[in-house]
Specification:
By secondary structure, the chain is of the alpha+beta class. The chain has four helices and five strands, in the order E-H-E-H-H-E-H-E-E. It is elongated, with a radius of gyration of 15 Å. 19% of the residues are buried.
């Protein structure tokens, strides 16, 4: 199994349970790891045979910017569903960081894995 990753993806969105969070956009930071098999892409040197991380990034950014969830758990789950369903990867790991959610510059968020991680 090979992994394509995106780290430090900063996206503005509405997320939170408090009234002020419902009207003020904030930045969430995403780190993604996605399982794939890079052998065909490496052999052909063609983007058509690769997991296009640019496409994944654009799709996730568009979704997160347009979203408005109360819980980071829900946002994370929906992002993983999009990646698994639309990009046909067997496994995804997402770290969603809602910086400063509990004051200061403290990092807080969720880490979820969905799908089946192969060891081959």
């Amino acid at each position: 199994m090979d992994i394509i990753f995106l780290r430090g993806l900063q996206i503005e969105t509405i997320v939170g349970i408090f009234d002020w969070e419902r009207v003020n956009r904030r930045i969430v930071v995403l780190d993604l790891e996605m399982a794939t098999d890079n052998r065909k892409a490496a052999a052909t040197d063609a983007i058509a045979d690769a997991l296009d991380y640019g496409e994944v990034s654009r799709r996730v950014i568009d979704f997160v910017e347009a979203s408005s969830f109360f819980l980071v758990e829900t946002l994370a789950e929906r992002i993983c569903e999009i990646i698994l369903d639309e990009f046909k990867v067997p496994w995804v790991r997402l770290v969603l960081n809602k910086k400063g959610a509990i004051g200061g510059e403290t990092d807080v968020g969720v880490i979820i894995e969905r799908g089946v991680k192969s060891h081959g």
